[in-house]
Amino acid sequence: MNENIFTTVCPGCSIACGMYVREKDDGTINIDWRKDAIVNAGKLCRFGVRLSENLKNATSKVDGNEVEFSDAVTTAGKAITDGATFISVGNTTCAEHVALMKLAESKGAVVNTGMGAFTAIPEECHPTMGVGIPLDAIESAKKIVLFIDPYEQYPLLVRRILAAKKNGATVTAVGWKTVSLADDNKTIDPANYESELALDSNSVIIAELNPSTDPERVMVLLNLAKASGAAIMFMKPFVNAVGCDLASKKTEQKSLDQIISEINDGSIKTLVCLDSDLIEIMPDETTVREALGKLDNLIVITSRASAITNVANIVIATEPLYKKAGTIVNAEGRALHNSGESTDGID
Questions:
Q1: Which among 23, 54, 205, 346 could disulfide-bond with 99, CB atoms 3.0 to 4.6 Å apart, if both were Cys?
Q2: Residue bearing the bigger pLDDT, 343 or 201
Q3: HSE on the CB side for 189, CA within 13 Å?
Q4: Which helix (H) or strand (E) holds 160?
Q5: What is residue 154's DSSP assignment?
Q6: Residue 322 shares a structural domain with residue 282
C-alpha cells in the first residue's frame, strides 16, 4: 500500500514537537519520530505517539446531515452575516487563522483567540506573555520554579527540566499538587513569592496561560519576574496559540467567558469556531452546552470530530493539521513549517 509522508508537528500543545505522519491510501496514519526536530530531538509524549488514536476526522454537515464540503461552505456563507462572532484559539496554521481574520473583517468583526488575560493586562506586557524563552534556556537555568505540573500538562518539558537538574539546577513547584521531579514543593501566599523563592537572573519561571487563566495571577508572576530578573515562560495548551495571538494582537479581544455571556443575553446570534471546541476548552461543560443551544447559527470549521461538531448547525470539515500548508509558531517563538500543501481551510 502506498503512503504519503508529511513533515509536521504534534497538535497536542504549544511545544509543537516535530514528527512525521505517514498516511496510507486508505487514510489511516502512523506516527514516526523526527530525530532532526530541534524542539524535541525525536522524543514524543503519549499523546503524540497515539495521535492516530486521538484524532478522528470531522465530516461536513448541515443540520446534522452529511453534505459535500462545498455545500457546507455555501450554507455557511449565507449564515455568516454582519454581527457574527469568530473564535480561533490556535489549533490551526497562521495562514488559516489570518484567512479567518479577513472573513471576520469583511463582517465588521475580529477573530477572538480566547485569551482574555491579554485584554485585562497592559499591552507592554503582551510580548512576555506571548513569546516565551528558548527551551534550551531552561536547561541552563540555576533555579526553576514551576507553577504547572509538566508531567500532566507538558510532558516534553520534563526532559528539559531533568537536563537542568543534571547541570546543577534546583526545582521548586508552587501549588497544591506535588510534582515529583521538584526538589521542593511549596504552597506560598503570592504576596510572599519574592521573599520565599529568592529568584535572580539565573532563574526561570514556568507557568501556563489558557482561556481560563486569572489575569491577576498573570500580573503577579510578571511582576515577580521583573522584580527578580528571572526569565518567565507561559506555556499554552494550543499548538499555535502564540502564532494566532501575534496575528490578532492589534485587535480588541473578548474572553471566552464574555462570549458565552453575550450569547446568553442574546447579543451574539451567530458563532464561528475555527478548530476551537468550547465544550472541551471551558471548565463548565453544562453551561457552555446550554449557551451554544441558544445560538441561531453555530458554524464549526474543523479537521477533527469532537463534542462541538455534534451540536453545530454547520460543520465544514477541513484537512488535518499535518496536511495544511502554513506555519506554526511554538511557545518559544520558533516558526515551524508544515510540509503539507492543502489549502481547503484557507480557501
A1: 346
A2: 201
A3: 3
A4: helix 156-166
A5: -
A6: yes
3-state secondary structure string across 249-272? CCCCCCEHHHHHHHHHCCCCCEEE
What is the model's pLDDT at position 194? 95
Give me the CATH number covering residue 89. 3.40.50.740
Alpha carbon distances (Å) from 235 to 68, 157, 175, 276: 38, 10, 17, 18
Please give the average per-residue pLDDT across 68-91, as a whole number: 95
Over range 302-314, report the average pLDDT.
96
- Interatomic CA distance for residues 160 and 133, integer angstroms: 13
pLDDT at residue number 153: 87
Residue 196 and residue 149 share a domain: yes
In this structure, is residue 339 part of a structural domain?
no
Closest Cα partner for 337 from 12, 3, 18? 18
The proportion of the chain whose per-residue pLDDT surpasses 70, expressed as a percent, equals 100
Rounded Cα distance, 104 and 149, in Å = 36
Count of domains in the chain?
A: 3
**Secondary structure of residue 211 in the 3-state scheme:** coil
1 has a pLDDT exceeding 70: no
Shared domain for 127 and 229, answered yes or no, is yes
Quick check: helix, strand or coil at residue 315?
strand
Tell me, yes or no, whether 144 and 226 share the same domain.
yes
Amino acid identity for residue 190 in this structure:
P
Q: Which residues contact 232 (CB under 8 A, 6 or more apart)?
A: 128, 132, 133, 204, 205, 206, 207, 221, 222, 224, 225
85: left (phi over 0), alpha (psi -120 to 50) or beta: beta
Cβ-proximal residues to 127 (8 Å cutoff; 6+ apart), any chain: none
- Note whether 205 and 226 are same-domain residues: yes
Residue 287, domain extent: 61-114+254-330
From 15, 32, 54, the end of a domain falls on 54
Last residue of a domain, one of 235, 264, 290: 235
